[in-house]
Amino acid sequence: MAKEIENLWREVRELSLGTQIDRLDSPPSPLHFLRDYVSQSKPCVISNAISHWPALKLWSDPAYLAGALSNDFVSLHLTPNGCADAVTQVDEDESAGDLCFASAHVERLPFPEALQAVRSSSKGEKVGYLQQQNDCFRTEYSKVASDCDGDIAWATEALGCSPEAVNLWIGTDLSVTSFHKDHYENLYAVVSGEKHFLLLPPTDVHRLYVQRYPAANYSYLRDTEAFKLELEQPVRHVPWCSVDPYPSPEREASERLKYPFFFNGPKPFHSTVKAGEILYLPSMWFHHVSQTPGDGGYTVAVNYWYDMQFDIKYAYFNFLQSVPYESSSLNPFLSWREDEDSESGDSEV
């Protein structure tokens, strides 16, 4: 079975995906988008689709956003390292080897204060990220909603529905989103700065070493300006990708030994999405996200989540992920079946 699965990784690229993400110079027609991208589960980057948005000119100015949202409370996510919703050491002593799925500390703050916390982030001390999701753009940020479109019109027509949720993201280069997948068709529009995506198709699920980790939460103690990471009680497990594609130099050799399917397999697709561009990210594609700030000292993006079709492709994926895969006795992949009820939804994008 190992040979067949490894052949699948190659064949999906040779027959369908190619080696690079397609780039379109203008928005596709609904039929073109549905036929060539949605139905084929194939990402693309679209230029000149949001050039009419006032947000492109206005949101790079922190004074504009702080003024427009001066009386609004928003949800600020805080971590010591910029890695929320990620596999993390339970203890600072890495030799202990205990890992958990760590979620950020969340505070409700006036937007000007929250934005300042994002812009003044410092790794190892406190990193702020505005990433509430759960349709936050239409709830917490409704006063600036008119600066963008309420949907992506050609995608709405192609998909036959309006967005289930619209989310706003504001962060710095210190905030990174670990590999994960979402059960949504995702139209991800960058307003300021750049977003850097590493992408793997659903066929490559075995390469990400998904395991179940005990859930934990950061709490931030303002009197001591310190974080505390505590496991949830009762214990709850979250299935999550184990691979860090950019390990530190001191960890790189050991990470390559632990996760050879990722590091020795086909390269992930890489796409940089610049201000004014939209990434179409098909449902169930695994993605890792980092960012480069724009003129205001932060990156801003708005993403539109459309409900996916739970059709034969979903059934094929469930079958594939249930197949045990072991190409090396030193690095076995243990089969797993995702528990939908326990999967976290608080990750980008």
UniProtKB/TrEMBL annotation:
Superkingdom as given in the UniProt entry: Eukaryota
One Pfam family linked to the record: Cupin_8
Domain JmjC: start-end pairs: 128-321
InterPro entries, per database record: Cupin_8, JmjC_dom, RmlC-like_jellyroll
Listed Gene3D superfamilies: Jelly Rolls (2.60.120.10)
PROSITE patterns in the record: JMJC
Similarity comment text for this entry: Belongs to the JARID1 histone demethylase family.
Protein name: JmjC domain-containing protein
